[in-house]
Amino acid sequence: MDTILFSVLTVLTQWLRPRYNARLRLLEAQIRMLRARVDTSRIVPTPKERAELLRLGAAMDHDINELMHVVVPATYKKWLRQLRAGKRFQPLGRPRTPMATRRLVLRMATENLRWGYWRIVGELKKLGIRIGATTIRDILKEEGHSPEPYKATKKPPAPWTTFVHAHLETIVACEFFTKKVFTLGGIRVAHVLVFIHLGSRKVFHRPSTYHPDSKWLMQQARNASMCMEDEGIKPRFLIRERDRKFPDEFNRFRKTEGMGCIGIPVKAPRANAFAESDISIAHREVLDYFVCFSRGHLDHILRVWKKHYQEERPHRGVGHDNTVLDENFVPMTAGDFAASPNLEAS
User: Fold this and answer.
1) Does the pLDDT at position 152 exceed 60?
2) Per the domain annotation, does 122 fall within a domain?
3) What's the total number of domains in the chain?
4) I want to staple 271 with a disulfide (CB 3.0 to 4.6 A). Which of 11, 35, 153, 264 is the partner?
5) Angle at 144 between CA 140 and CA 145, to 5 degrees
């Protein structure tokens, strides 16, 4: 019985060996093709890859002279001697610059367009961070930022985010939004014009209308200007979308007020992110939960919401005339609530 089984295994081995050898030769040929196109010095196996090659080589008593194509056999034998000597494999090259430092370098270069990489070296030394100028230059190139400052131009191009954050106190953004109103005559669409001061996050909702014509829009612009003046807000720029609802008279009126109008690019709502965010919050927290039956109903909801938003709801306007948070707040340790029997029982 053993003789028959041995004979069968021998026949199967002889039948499968050519096919198995052909597979190995095909893989080896592909490795040689790839190896001929890659420089020898560019293949640097990681410590984990070296350990894996040594583990597989141990299965054939490390006889790899004709099989090793990633590195030369001498390098493999050097790894083997290090392994037998008990040395741990260490990654080659210098450690990469920490991500926090890379972000700081990019932030300095982005917010200060006239700074070159040598200037950034000096500024980082003030913070106790020592890094070479060549490293900073490479970081800026990898991030797509020019390592040289804009010295030739009087006013270097500034990113939109940088411009907005540099002029928060002097920018007002406006935007339209709509709300369906269910009336006896059917469903109608009410239009609401919103103004928001970017520095203090103060919001000015104007009364809604079914017909946002130029006359109504100009009146709302005048009313918003008076409200801002009462709040002590003196904007220099107005961000608005490129909507046909804004007539030419609107831009001329703003210029007489000493304010420049900035139209955002087409299909770029993020350029007016502050106004879009305020409208989104109003819909998400209030308007989506109400069915309006008249313009007066909608205006009342917006007035109550604006009062809550300005005086009671904490938001990112803290520090800009925002009285929501009391810096001198002290938790109460005594009182009727603290002496409540239900509280003691719990």
Assistant:
1) no
2) yes
3) 3
4) 264
5) 50
